Amino acid sequence: MNDNSDIDEASLARLIPIFYDRVRADAELGPLFNAAVNDWAEHLERLTAFWSSVMLTTGRYKGSPMAAHLKHKAHITPALFDRWLALWSEVTDEVMPSAAAAALQAKAARIAESLQLALFFRLDDPVGDAVRRTA
């Protein structure tokens, strides 16, 4: 089991702005996020509440990550998820103690997998998808 004892509200409030500063400056992620987010201060508060809810079970986040991502589905690719996760790993390794970084990275990977399944997995044409994958 991961040790989340080094994760608290203060560490999340420090981590999230650092991470999203890097996202905003990133050549791949920046254009998507900068076009999608109108109020960065409010967005950072929401994201900090999200991670507080996910890692500390505080229940602070009130929203739907799936709905937020679905609004931008036309611009999101699996490669962007990979880039986000790579940047998340880099920043959490720099900012957090190693056990906390590992816990945050593992949770992010599970969330990304769930979001990608919902965004990209099509039930309407499973045979065609299987054929395309093997071609």
From TrEMBL:
The residue stretches assigned to a coiled coil in this entry are: none
InterPro entries reported for this sequence = Globin-like_sf, Globin/Proto
Indicate the transmembrane segments per the record: none
An MF annotation (GO) of this entry: heme binding
Domain of life, source organism: Bacteria
Q: Name it.
A: Preprotein translocase subunit TatC
